[in-house]
Write a structure and sequence with these properties.
alpha/beta, Rossmann fold, 5-stranded parallel sheet, 11 helices, 10% strand, binds adenosine-5'-diphosphate, binds magnesium ion
């Protein structure tokens, strides 16, 4: 085969091999390589490095899209001075390390409305997506509905298994789930299934004491809390509402 024939076939071969980055960059890179007399191995390595780097970027972009994280609620936009009860160093360590995720450790964020629970939960989610993990951020009530529908179709186990692909599941506002509304034992099934394997991050207005409004019976409440806290990091966010504070500072005369 002559060199011209090879060149003509390159785009098709790269498409077949699913190497879009090399398909885009090979003309420029090989030109540089020819001009600067690179050894063949250097040229190959340069092409592959680009493909690998862009592949990681594409994966992260996909993971960010599927995660459903609230936009802009990142750690660098979180003002730690507003919440003295939470150690910035501790949260930064969670955002920058993934040991907790690898062990299936849970994170529980407690506090009244407006103190930044959802923001901080989302921020840790964003950090884990950036680190290459898969995350799903969901309102707990939405997930309960989804799992109840699956249970009605006798597909609860499959639905819970499908959530396994997410290294981190952020359940926002657990305490908005009320057992009176429907069957909430699906949440218990989910907690049990992920226990010691896959992390949950839960935000709740109510501390454990009030959780018997969530689960169908006291025994299940105790069992759920037991599994959640066994390997967990609990952050108590007890401060004034950030929403209220920022509204007050915007008020004229303040
Ligand atoms: P919660 O979930 O506890 O009710 P949110 O996380 O929804 O509270 O916070 C309410 C609003 O205030 C959001 O817009 C959030 O981004 C912002 N907010 C709360 N705490 C902080 C903080 N410490 N730094 C920056 N923004 C914050
Ligand atoms: Mg919230």
């Amino acid at each position: 085969m002559s060199a011209t024939v090879d060149t003509a076939q390159l785009p098709a071969m790269l498409t077949q091999l699913r190497l879009p980055t090399i398909a885009r960059l090979w003309p420029a890179i090989t030109q540089t390589a020819d001009r600067e007399s690179w050894p063949a191995t250097k040229t190959l390595a340069a092409l592959f490095e680009h493909e690998i780097a862009e592949r990681a970027q594409r994966r992260t972009a996909r993971h960010l899209l599927e995660a459903g994280l609230p936009v802009g609620k990142t750690i660098d936009r979180f003002d730690f001075t507003a919440i003295p009860s939470v150690s910035k160093a501790r949260v930064m360590a969670l955002a920058e390390g993934d040991a907790w995720l690898a062990k299936g450790t849970n994170i529980l964020l407690f506090g009244p409305p407006g103190v930044g629970k959802s923001h901080l939960g989302a921020a840790l989610g964003h950090a884990m997506v950036d680190a290459g993990y898969r995350v799903l951020f969901t309102r707990t009530t939405d997930l309960v509905q989804h799992l109840q529908a699956a249970r009605q179709d006798l597909k609860l186990a499959t639905a819970i298994e499908k959530l396994d692909k997410y290294h981190l599941l952020v359940l926002d506002d657990l305490s908005y789930v009320q057992k009176s509304q429907a069957e909430t034992s699906v949440i218990f099934e989910l907690i049990s299934a992920r226990y010691e394997r896959r992390s949950l991050l839960i935000t709740a207005n109510q501390p454990f004491g009030a959780w018997d409004t969530i689960f169908p019976d006291p025994a299940m409440t105790v069992a759920a809390i037991d599994r959640l806290v066994h390997h967990s990091i609990i952050l108590e966010m007890n401060t004034d509402s950030y929403r209220r504070k920022s509204a007050e500072t915007k008020r004229p005369g303040k």
